[in-house]
């Protein structure tokens, strides 16, 4: 019996394989602004949709990152990818680390883009309740997006991204993933892992800062480094797509 697969977007046909996992508000479509700048002769990219999101919107499940890791590995098997690199945006930072835990020998490199660490966002109950309220309130989603980009971008853009997030994801999936990236902690399982890690942070991101990266990712991964993306907040794939694509590939080509 053939196992069902998650939906995805494939770009390029190069020998270097890369799978990207999006954030809470996103989907595989988040990565499309990067596509004109990607080296599709050198790389093959797969932009993955979690269960309940995008091309996997109708796929039921537990909506956990352990489940998502198994879905990634099933897709990699389907694509005949023995080894590959991972990119994770925001909650995708948690997701890619779950893939690493599930199959460490298969992961070449990991890149985190404004990536939540393995200890989660460590939200207290008050903040977690505010995020839960965004499940059914598109205006709250827009407010979170505006805050995460430094309250410096067009409100119409924040509202647009909020509406798109509501369109591409199921409310039950959106709600279910929240505690797994906001309040869980599996960092003790990952300390001193040898995989090369590069973290890209936005200079206007108010929460996923250089100081946080130093206390978390850089403390747990001995081969981790970070780079600040100028003129970006929490969504550099939209804010500075050419700069992000260039920085990612400059680093991925070192492998």
UniProtKB/TrEMBL annotation:
Q: Which InterPro entries match?
A: AB_hydrolase_1, AB_hydrolase_fold, AB_hydrolase_sf
AB hydrolase-1 domain residues are 22-239
What Pfam family is a match for this entry? Abhydrolase_1
Swiss-Prot/TrEMBL keywords: Hydrolase
Keyword Cell inner membrane (UniProt)? no
Q: Does the keyword Flavoprotein apply?
A: no
Q: Molecular function terms in GO for this entry?
A: hydrolase activity
Report the SUPFAM superfamilies cross-referenced here.
alpha/beta-Hydrolases
Signal sequence coordinates? none
The Gene Ontology CC terms held by the record are: membrane
* Record's protein name: Hydrolase
Q: What is the lineage of its organism?
A: Bacteria, Pseudomonadati, Pseudomonadota, Betaproteobacteria, Burkholderiales
